[in-house]
Specification:
The structure is a single chain. This protein has about 180 residues and is mostly helical. The chain contains eleven helices and no strands. Helix 1 runs parallel beside helix 3 and helix 4 runs antiparallel to helix 5. The chain starts with a helix and ends with a helix.
Length: about 180
């Protein structure tokens, strides 16, 4: 099984190198899906052997997955700093999930020094790039559930978050909820 996976990685890596970007992205997505399926089945060695080359080839989704594996101690020994390094590489490549994950590193002090300024910088960037987790977390900073709360919850609702839609409805922002429901 491992030999088959390695051969598959080599073939798909060659596809990534020699074909146009659209085909390369599709090949990378397929590889990442296979890695995540192997991970879900508990075949951590297979997941690792697929994700590592993708991450080193600067594929942002793979860099984020690798960051999670290091940060949370799955597949690799628990190394939060290395996990946050991978999140940062993927975040700098424009990956919203990694931007959010990096903000969590700065918020918790797990893998990065606790730093609210950096946490807000990355969380806001993640939200502006479509991360509903970041939007919802930013809304919770407004303890009065005023304009900042409403702005970020409305953004999350606009991006399809049921949680945000219900939260707006519970806060009597029915106009925002109605607009979100018709806008989709």
């Amino acid at each position: 099984m491992i030999a088959f996976i390695r051969a598959l990685v080599v073939c798909l890596s060659a596809t990534v190198l020699f074909f146009p970007p659209a085909l390369a992205d599709e090949a990378q997505e397929k590889l990442l899906d296979q890695a995540l399926a192997a991970y879900d089945e508990g075949d951590f060695e297979a997941a690792r052997s697929i994700i590592l080359p993708l991450a080193h080839a600067e594929y942002p989704d793979a860099m984020n997955a690798l960051g999670l594996m290091y940060h949370d101690g799955f597949v690799f020994l628990n190394d939060p700093e290395k996990g946050c390094d991978w999140f940062e590489r993927a975040a700098n490549a424009g990956n919203p999930a990694s931007m959010y994950n990096l903000s969590v590193c700065f918020n918790s002090g797990h893998g990065r020094p606790k730093n609210e300024t950096q946490m807000l910088r990355w969380r806001t960037m993640a939200a502006k790039n479509g991360s509903t987790n970041a939007m919802i977390n930013l809304s919770s900073r407004d303890k009065t559930e005023g304009e900042e709360y409403r702005y970020w919850m409305k953004m999350a609702a606009d991006h399809g978050s049921t949680y945000a839609k219900v939260s707006l409805w519970l806060q009597d922002y029915e106009d925002d909820v109605a607009w979100c429901m018709t806008a989709r």
